[in-house]
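Minutes, project check-in
Item: structure for the 414-residue chain
Input as provided by the requester:
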Amino acid sequence: MDRKPTLRFNKEISWKQYLLGSLITKIETGTNELGKEIRTDVPLLKMGNIQLGTFDFSKLEFLTEEQFKNSKKYIAKNGDFLFNTRNTLALVGKAATWTLENKNFVFNSNIARISLDDSKINSHFLNYLYATPSVWSQVKARAVGTTSVAAVYPRDLSSIKLFIPILEEQEKISSFFRQLDLKIHLHQERIDLMKEQKKGYLQKIFSRELRFKDNYGNNFPEWTSYSLEELGSFGASYSFSRALEGEGEYCIVHYGDIHSNLPTVCENISFPSITEKRDFELIYENDILFADASEDYADLGKAILIKKLKSQNLIAGLHTYKFTANEKLNPLYFIYFTQTNSYKEFIGKMGTGVSVLGISKSNLKKLEVALPSLEEQRKIGELLHLFDKKIAYETEKIQAIQNQKQALMQQMFI
């Protein structure tokens, strides 16, 4: 069966259908050696490191020199197609082509290296083809097991149907998409660098190792500590679940949005509306919202600043506390104070609960906040907010490239 995609490098020659098994020359699983988090020169690739068409190195384990001696045949080489044989049902079967050179990454026994007939298919082309809905849906259909533990056996991949062009066009397509991926990677590197820089400034500023000066080059006054209760007041919040979201006059902030969806500083965000109507206490610009519940300490007490509001009647929703700063406290300064280690340690100490954690308003009021002068607060808040704005800008660029890539993949593959 011959077919052609919408967008082509070669408009003359149709794509041909193959079974993946006819393109595979060898399948081998990796080392049985177990890694540890102690860093060495030999990272171990595990099932969680393989994503669909890419790799995630945020969590790595490592092998010792002795373990490496027994595992050299399992070093990932440029062009290897690595396949995740076991994982959760949602993640199993993901695969990607290895592109790094001169790196001693060893893959473990839950990963299969699939060697391909390079006279018929380019492994970098397969990296992108594999991620298309037409192929990925076939892979998922072959997964067996439970939601938490599932497998796709490499032998079952043989019957997967692929449409592929001639090698010359495969190489052009893969080269084109690798250029897009490189752009994404470069933007991500900038984001990672800025996050590290911001982290460094947070530590130095709030430890007072780094101090600002006034417009005349003079030192600002020494910092003074206050309890949060002395720096503002808490307002009303309303325990409405997401079930009440719908067309209405009022909008709401849910604690789950603070955990995952909203930026630290919210400017002109469109919040979901609710059908409920009564005389609510509203959120205003420069109000701060805390999430008072979480399944882990990482998100317990997480806070956001409502810096600029659209024309919305906004209220604090389920598991949130609304806080309005008084004249002593710059809200932008304070929102970055909530990202410091001292704040996280306070939350860890004052939080309660087991499966669901919580922090009470009375405990939150006891938070000790170190305050410089208002002018130094302003300078600190603006500097750290500048990092967040630059990170957001680079993130938007990545999203635009990813959207472009997704649209092009729909046109360039069958």
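Outcome recorded: The mean pLDDT is 94.
No further action items on this chain.
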